[in-house]
Amino acid sequence: ILHTNIETAPVVVETSARTDASGSPVTLQSARFAEPTLYAELPEGQQSVVVHERLNPNDFRFSFNVTVARNQRYSLLFFGDLDQLGTKAALIQDVVPAEIGAGNVAVRVVHGLVGASGLDLSTNVGAVASNVPFGAASEYRILPAGLTSIDVQRASDKRVVFRGGVSLEPGRAYSFVVGGEVDYLVTSTTYQD
Question: pTM higher than 0.85, yes or no?
Fold first, then answer.
């Protein structure tokens, strides 16, 4: 779960493939705003994956029909706001490059930042992505591993909305998940894919 909506309570994810003795869905994961989560293993086959607010499950519900196959990974992006844009969710397939190469990493940006229709991501070793749409993820890009500085810019005016640094271990894939709201609080959480 990639929770980037600063205005909402924690959310949970359930699947139709896992139920308790009474037939009710079992919670797979719970997430709070900008809090990293790990992948949850789902059984192979067709199923419905649902995300909803933990305390008020009827306030909003998003459901995705997905066929899970061996070695497939998905991220569930929870984004938007309560006022103008509304609360949204997107199911993103994580297609990590098969070959990253010695001394390299694969990186991408996931855009859940309110106040930016598109995001650019650059590092001290080059650009990663340009004009990633709100609610979407860029493709992975191969970069050298090590200490990396990142700049996240709003694509429309090139304004830097987040600047930070992270140490990236060789041979791994990472997502920089940008969330919150421009001019209020912007976060970039690094997830190892």
Answer: yes
d(CA 7, CA 45): 34
Which three-class secondary structure state does DSSP give residue 110?
strand
Instruction: Classify residue 184 as exposed, middle or buried by CB count within 10 Å of its CB (0-12, 13-18, 19+).
Output: exposed
Taking the mean position of all CA atoms in its chain, how far away is CA 116? 16
Terminal-residue alpha carbon distance, the chain: 12
pLDDT band at residue 175 using 50, 70 and 90 as cut-offs = very high
- Give 12-42 pLDDT, tens digit per residue: 888 888 888 998 888 888 999 998 788 888 8
Sign of the CA dihedral 36, 70, 99, 89?
Answer: negative
Question: CB–CB of 4/180 below 8 Å?
Answer: yes
